[in-house]
């Protein structure tokens, strides 16, 4: 019988696939439709903590000493269901923390350990993260005990820190303050490949030149955190691997010395796991059946032995004492000649040509058995690449320098995406200011704000000058790694002052006016820039018939060149900004997609993006003064005319062949306005059009102004971690 003949109780009550399961979506019918999902990535609706939950307040209740004591105890409390290597979980916990933090990439600030995203797909099922589900499950009793007083994100990184301490490293410090997310970041772009560990060639213009890797990617293959441990595309060649290591770590803002220190310090403890057939492993956590309870990669041949674990496929420890942080990595790497061999799982690894039995590490489960140590292709790169070799020689000559360099690099790795130090919390936060933390000195709050504002109003700066400069200063903020923003006024420093999108000549002219005003009243330039932008918005609102005051919080500081890591700030350059109708060059993705990406990095919602674009167009703040999208004869007034005229069916919209469009009168065919894709998407995309229609309604002028001011203030204050939200 067919489905219509089934008894009523047997009929499936829901549609398969598109409603309750992942996979095919109804939107797959329209593959070219603009997908706004990335703007919902950090929606608060999935958050079970409620809007009143304050993690900083919970942290103040945390007994850090007790938490660390429990973590210390965990390290050597080997569990039958997942036994520890040599009875110590340190290597596993370090790898968990490392792979959480190591997904960070400088280009867009995404990834990293700051959100606890390793709990969710795709990272929880990443091939390079095999068995890290066990590490998090081992932590669960501790998380359960301390509850909301410690986030998963903090606990994962702290576990790695404590692991190193328990193995003898004096760490540089630790900062709490990472807040958990509650939904997978499935819209983060990790690469275009459709299969795990596909050959890396598609990520490069030329795989022979690692610098040609597609931005913003940093890992060499889909499913890896860094490089392939067996070599480029699995073919051993330490010199080629060295080039990939150098580029990959540079894309995390690590220099050669930090890279060498991290490689050596990371492989001073723990081991790789490949004593078995990886093909026999069960499904990853996200693919598993309900009875597996979120655990993946079941190994039918492990038989309760740590030594039978299979993860990377490589097998062995790097040092003679893999539960002790020492100089053993260097002793082993530089004290032996190495040759290529195969692990029991068939992976390519390097093993010593000759080694004394007493120098071999003992079996992870049976101390009466000894095995050869091993090295990955990336380890061999530290010996064979002349630059890395020289650095390692320096470390070997001064072990204390190595330990300090590693401790600092590990701290940077695990805190890189937390933003400025003001976001750190706890008794182990280092006092030293580090340049990669983008330090900003405290600014004055005691000056006469009204007097500064009045002086700016008399300065002759145009509304567009004031609003555009404030926007350009603030738009660099990235919620992904809490970098950028108006605080620090780095727009007046290299490299930002020379970015094309900041219109250097106009910027210099505006700063030449604002800097003396700031100095006269004891305000920071950063405050003066934002205050000028607020003034411009108030003038535009008044021109539209509304007297409003844009909220302003003084206290921003002015950073100096010495406080600014210019190289890492290059990654913050806006290559496109839909809010000012700017695009630097032709790119493989559409201008409207670039606008969504910047919007998400700024942590703005789709409605906030809509109202800000409409207001910026109305005020005439386009890059270079172009008139694209300025659908009004009242330019400079904060009106909803952009939406009114975009949705007016008295118009037609015609492409003119250079990425721009003409809006013509339907009856006379006369050109009324011009536009870009970043303008017309607010009428062509069904969701954005729904927002546009709200502001095009006859009763929405006041709502438009209020919504614009709220969104504008959010942007100006996005990086004010020094004040309460």
Task: Describe the model.
The chain contains 22 helices and 9 strands. It is mainly α. The model is unreliable at 15-19 (pLDDT under 50). Helix 2 runs antiparallel to helix 4 (132-146) and helix 7 (256-266) packs across helix 11 (399-415). 35% of the residues lie in helices and 5% in strands. The strands form 4 sheets. A 3-stranded antiparallel sheet has the order 7-8-9. It has helices at 55-59, 64-75, 90-101, 132-146, 152-166, 238-250, 256-266, 328-334, 377-384, 386-397, 399-415, 449-457, 463-474, 504-521, 525-543, 566-569, 591-601, 606-619, 641-646, 677-684, 686-696, 701-716, and strands spanning 271-272, 316-317, 338-342, 348-352, 576-577, 582-583, 651-655, 660-665, 671-676.
Topology, pairings included?
Blueprint (H helix, E strand, L loop, with lengths): L54 H5 L4 H12 L14 H12 L30 H15 L5 H15 L71 H13 L5 H11 L4 E2 L43 E2 L10 H7 L3 E5 L5 E5 L24 H8 L1 H12 L1 H17 L33 H9 L5 H12 L29 H18 L3 H19 L22 H4 L6 E2 L4 E2 L7 H11 L4 H14 L21 H6 L4 E5 L4 E6 L5 E6 H8 L1 H11 L4 H16 L9
Antiparallel strand pairs: 1-2, 3-4, 5-6, 7-8, 8-9
Brief sketch in words of this structure:
This protein has 22 helices and nine strands. It has 725 residues and is mostly helical. The strands form four sheets. The protein has a three-stranded antiparallel β-sheet with strand order 7-8-9. Strands 1-2 form a two-stranded antiparallel ribbon.
């Amino acid at each position: 019988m067919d489905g219509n003949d089934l008894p009523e109780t047997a009929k499936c009550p829901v549609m398969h696939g598109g409603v309750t399961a992942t996979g095919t979506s109804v939107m797959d019918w329209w593959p070219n439709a603009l997908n706004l999902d990335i703007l919902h990535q950090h929606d608060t609706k999935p958050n079970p903590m409620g809007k009143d939950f304050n993690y900083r307040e919970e942290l103040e209740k945390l007994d850090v000493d007790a938490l660390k004591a429990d973590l210390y105890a965990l390290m050597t409390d080997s569990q039958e269901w997942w036994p520890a290597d040599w009875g110590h979980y340190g290597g596993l916990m370090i790898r968990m923390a490392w792979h959480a933090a190591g997904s960070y990439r400088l280009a867009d600030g995404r990834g990293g350990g700051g959100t606890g995203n390793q709990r969710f797909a795709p990272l929880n099922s990443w091939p390079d993260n095999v068995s890290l589900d066990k590490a998090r499950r081992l932590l669960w009793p501790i998380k359960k005990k301390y509850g909301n007083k410690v986030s998963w994100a903090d606990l994962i990184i702290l576990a790695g820190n404590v692991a190193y301490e328990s193995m003898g490293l004096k760490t540089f410090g630790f900062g709490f303050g990472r807040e958990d997310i509650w939904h997978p970041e499935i819209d983060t772009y990790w690469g275009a490949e459709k299969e795990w560990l596909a050959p890396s060639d598609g990520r490069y213009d030329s795989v022979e030149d690692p610098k040609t890797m597609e931005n913003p990617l940093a890992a060499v293959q889909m499913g890896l955190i860094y490089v392939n441990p067996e070599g480029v595309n699995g073919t051993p060649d330490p010199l080629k691997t060295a080039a990939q290591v150098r580029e990959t770590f540079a894309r995390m803002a690590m220099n050669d010395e930090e890279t060498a220190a991290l490689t050596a310090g990371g492989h001073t403890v723990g081991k790789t796991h490949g004593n078995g057939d990886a093909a026999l492993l069960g499904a990853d956590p996200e693919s598993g059946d309900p009875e597996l309870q979120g655990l993946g990669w079941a190994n039918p041949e492990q038989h309760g032995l740590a030594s039978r674990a299979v993860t990377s496929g490589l097998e062995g420890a790097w040092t003679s004492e893999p539960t002790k942080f020492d100089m053993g990595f260097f002793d082993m790497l530089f004290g032996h000649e190495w040759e290529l061999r195969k692990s029991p799982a068939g992976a390519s690894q390097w093993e010593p040509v000759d080694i004394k039995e007493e120098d071999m590490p003992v079996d992870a489960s049976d101390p009466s058995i000894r095995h050869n140590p091993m090295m990955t292709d990336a380890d061999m790169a530290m010996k064979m690449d002349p630059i890395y070799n020289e650095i390692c020689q320096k470390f070997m000559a001064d072990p204390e320098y190595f330990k300090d360099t590693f401790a600092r690099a590990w701290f940077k790795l695990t805190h890189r995406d937390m933003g400025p130090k003001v976001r750190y919390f706890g008794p182990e936060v280092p006092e030293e200011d580090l340049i990669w933390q983008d330090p900003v000195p405290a600014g004055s709050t005691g000056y006469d704000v009204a007097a500064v504002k009045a002086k700016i109003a008399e300065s002759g700066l145009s509304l567009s000058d004031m609003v555009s400069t404030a926007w350009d200063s603030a738009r660099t903020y990235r919620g992904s790694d809490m970098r950028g923003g108006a605080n620090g006024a780095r727009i007046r420093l290299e490299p930002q002052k020379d970015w094309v999108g900041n219109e250097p000549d106009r910027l210099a002219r505006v700063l030449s006016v604002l800097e003396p005003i700031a100095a006269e009243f004891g305000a920071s330039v950063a405050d003066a820039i934002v205050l000028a932008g607020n003034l411009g918005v108030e003038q535009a609102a008044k021109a539209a018939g509304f007297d409003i005051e844009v909220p302003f919080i003084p206290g921003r500081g002015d950073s100096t060149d010495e406080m600014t890591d210019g190289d890492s700030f290059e990654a913050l350059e806006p290559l496109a900004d839909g809010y000012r109708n700017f695009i630097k060059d032709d790119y493989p993705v559409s201008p409207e997609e670039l606008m969504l990406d910047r919007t998400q990095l700024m942590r703005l919602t789709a409605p906030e993006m809509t109202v800000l674009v409409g207001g910026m167009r109305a005020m005439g703040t386009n890059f270079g003064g172009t008139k694209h999208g300025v659908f009004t004869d009242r330019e400079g007034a904060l009106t909803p005319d952009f939406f009114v005229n975009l949705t007016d069916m008295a118009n037609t919209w015609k492409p003119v062949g250079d990425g721009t469009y003409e809006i013509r009168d339907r009856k006379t065919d006369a050109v009324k306005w011009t536009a870009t894709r970043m303008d017309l998407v607010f009428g062509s995309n069904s969701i954005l059009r729904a927002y546009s229609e709200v502001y095009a309604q006859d009763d929405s002028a006041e709502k438009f102004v209020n919504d614009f001011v709220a969104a504008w203030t959010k942007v100006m204050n996005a990086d004010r971690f020094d004040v309460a939200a």
